[in-house]
Specification:
CATH topology of the largest domain: Heat Shock Protein 90
Largest sheet: 5 strands, antiparallel
Catalytic activity: ATP + protein L-histidine = ADP + protein N-phospho-L-histidine
Subcellular location: Cell membrane
Organism: Algicella marina
Number of helices: 14
Number of domains: 3
Structural class: alpha+beta
GO molecular function: ATP binding; phosphorelay sensor kinase activity
Shape: extended
CATH architecture of the largest domain: 2-Layer Sandwich
GO cellular component, one term: plasma membrane
Strand content: 15-25%
Distance between the termini: 24 Å
């Protein structure tokens, strides 16, 4: 990130600062080649403007600023930049904000004091630092908007008279919204903490029973059998968790590799559901597989094993958490205007249902509506997270409808393959929020 931002700012320095600024920037950052590569679009556009400035149209007088640019081209350049950019004058006023900056700072107005543009002490200190030292600086800050958002910014000095902004010196800021990056980092941190907790609990239990067996229970056959059974249960729980973690890791590693095998969705669904009849019987649940394989079903591009895993997860959850004496139906989904061009398989249970505030969290890693019940039934809290990632890879979606006391319906949706589809690129990746 810092290198990318530095590249933009070097390119801008080259554009607005003229040859002297370019030479200074090149010396500081290991030569013109670095500036050229790092500056990217900024450098290319700046070079084009310099050529234009050097070769004006015949008989067309042009007024140039101190950097050698025709007046007006500096603002035109900033206006076209995709990165949010603002310019602060030495008189402490906002003199310019390009459209990208206005998109994230809608309340900013030209002429206002810079401390009101971004109400963050780190930003104010960065402005003061650049004006005092004439050195580039970086800062990070948070702002409360519709929600808390996190930003990273890099500031550089614009010499007096450069960039169509008047005779005084200015500071130019490039601002980057890092909210999603911070959320991703937090998600990874939470994941490690949750995984550690999930492993630590059964491990502590096993160690405790081993210590007991080495002590006063050593000569007690009845206690030994009881403790060994509990230890086996806890070890199996750890094994399931490790297996799910490994599965999730493999899925994420192949997330950008689109599956290419042409599959009959109905055949895959029927095979997965039929394999769970013994589990349904064991849990006193009536499983009804309402999928006919006498005729071909919708064709999708997919990974057979992964789609089988999704369907097994959904049916397994419905059987385990629907409750004894309940019914689980697996059937083709009715067409939906929300998922045009897609075919679906619905898993419907008549269980207790899920509260509305919990539905959107079901695909979060380690989220459980009832943690104790989930662990008792062998759940790891990763099943629906795995389902989400598999469907993301397949450009699919997971629809969830549930109401307390009225059961739940989980529907997987997959794009129907056309004859021309052979590389798996059949739609956008689903966005699970």
């Amino acid at each position: 990130m810092a290198g990318e931002m530095k590249g933009w700012m070097l390119g801008l320095a080259a554009v607005f600062g003229g040859s002297a600024a370019l030479a200074s920037a090149s010396a500081e950052h290991s030569g013109p080649a670095v500036v050229l590569a790092a500056g990217g679009t900024a450098w290319a556009l700046g070079a084009a403007l310099r050529r234009r400035a050097a070769a004006p149209a015949p008989h067309t007088p042009q007024t140039k600023d101190r950097a050698g640019f025709p007046v007006g081209l500096g603002r035109a350049l900033l206006h076209q930049m995709p990165a949010p950019l603002i310019v602060i004058s030495q008189s402490e006023r906002l003199v310019y904000a390009n459209p990208a900056a206005m998109a994230i700072l809608p309340r900013a107005t030209v002429g206002m004091h810079y401390s009101g543009v971004i109400r963050a002490s780190a930003f104010v200190e960065a402005v003061e630092h650049v004006f005092e030292t004439r050195e580039d600086t970086e800062c990070t800050f948070a702002m409360m908007m519709e929600r808390e958002r996190f930003f990273e910014a890099r500031a550089s000095m614009l010499p007096a008279g450069a960039g169509d902004f008047g005779e005084e010196a200015h500071v130019i800021f490039q601002i980057e919204d890092r909210t999603r990056d911070k959320a991703s980092l937090q998600a990874r941190t939470d994941f490690v903490a949750n995984a550690s907790h999930e492993l630590r609990t059964p491990l502590a239990s096993i160690l405790g029973y081993i210590e007991t067996l080495q002590g006063h229970a050593k000569e007690d056959p009845e206690a030994r059998e009881l403790f060994l059974g509990i230890m086996m249960k806890q070890a199996s729980r750890m094994q399931r968790l490790v297996d799910d973690l490994m599965s999730l890791s493999r899925i994420e590693m192949n997330a950008h590799v689109r599956p290419e095998e042409r599959l009959d969705l109905h055949a895959v669904a029927a095979e997965a559901a039929n394999a769970l009849f013994p589990l349904a019987t064991q849990n006193d649940v009536l499983l009804q597989v309402e999928i006919s394989t006498d005729e071909p079903g919708p064709t999708v591009l997919g990974d057979r094993d992964q789609l089988n895993q999704v369907l097994v997860n959904l049916v397994d959850n419905a059987i385990k958490y629907g409750g004894q004496g309940q019914k689980v139906r697996v059937r083709p989904a009715d067409p939906s205007s929300k998922y045009p061009g897609q075919a679906g398989i619905s898993v419907i249970d008549t269980g207790p249902g899920i509260a509305r505030e919990n539905v959107h969290r079901l695909t979060e890693r380690f989220f459980r509506v009832n943690a104790g019940q989930s662990r008792d039934k062998g759940g790891t809290g990763l099943g629906l997270a795995i389902t989400k990632h598999i469907l993301n890879r397949h450009s699919g979606a997971l629809g969830i409808e549930s109401q307390p006391g009225h059961g739940s319906t989980f529907t997987l949706w997959l794009p129907v393959a056309n004859e021309a589809d052979s590389d798996g690129n059949v739609g956008k990746i689903a966005n699970f929020q």
